[in-house]
Structures are given as structure tokens and as C-alpha cells.
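Why do we care about 3D structure at all? Because function follows from shape, and shape follows, mostly, from sequence. That is the central idea of this module. The next example makes it concrete: a single protein chain, its amino acid sequence, and then its structure expressed as C-alpha cells.
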Amino acid sequence: MIRDEEVYKIGRIGKAHGVKGEVTMQVDDDVFDRVDADYVVLRIDGILVPFFFEEYRFRTDTTALVKFYDIDDMQHARRLTGCDVFFPHELADEDDQFSWAAIIGYSICDASDGKTIGTLTGVDDSTANILFNVETADGNVLLLPAAEPLIESIDSEARRIDYRVPEGLMELK
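And the structure:
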């Protein structure tokens, strides 16, 4: 059985394409540029299930047409519409290249005292100044700069990032 901590979200299945079981897959991670994968994991009825590629081809940087094994008609393909797509951490080869999507869900901890600041819920990399979206225990959302000098360490096993909080930033809540 595949567990949530073994995978990270990379996208979502769109609608069926054609009559032979193809689907569109929107991807917000460049994992396919870094790794040659045989499968992805879909969440179906709350369960993580591996789906093996028969073939796939990218139409744009973020959209692929995918044909999975044993999905051979439009009816079966439609059942996958809206499913979240995940990628296994063990295949991501994260040591060679870092992926923002792979750290979603990690705890952000103050490197000076070890206290948990919150949980990383997203990364805004739409501008030159990349920001971590961090949800605190009281439900507030903090935007923290994701600058490399502020990241002390990343522990993938513990799903924890030790972060050096810039002076005065926490008072801006």
C-alpha cells in the first residue's frame, strides 16, 4: 500500500481525450524533465493507486496526453477525471535537483530554537522572489522568503525544514 508520505503531488488528471482511453494530465512539476518514469500514482476514492504509462507525450510544458495500461476506452478514462496525480519520492532523484512540489507538507521550524512555525502549504515561484506559504497552528498564513541562505537544512525523512527567520518577520503577522 502506498502512503501519503511516500509521494508528492505533481498535478491533476483532466478530461478524457479521444475514444481509446487517453486523458489529459496537467503537471506543475518538472519531474519528467529529470526522471524517466514508468508510472504515476493517482488518488482514487481516497486510495493511492499506481498507474503505469503505456505512452505519454507533452502538448505544452504543463499538459500531457497520457495513455495508461488497461484504460482502453473513453468510459474508463472519464473515471480518472479530476484525480490528483502524485510522484514517488524514491523515483524523484531529489538529491540531484530540488523540486518545490516535493516539500509541500513539510514542517517549517525556526532554526534558532527548533520550534515549529507551521506547515508548508505552497510555494509561490511566479516572481523572482520565491515565497513559502506557511500555515500556522492557529490557521494564519505566513509568506516567508524561500531564499537559500535562510534554509538551514532540509530533512526529507522527518519532512522538516529548519529555517532561519529574518529578524522582525514574525512580528508582522
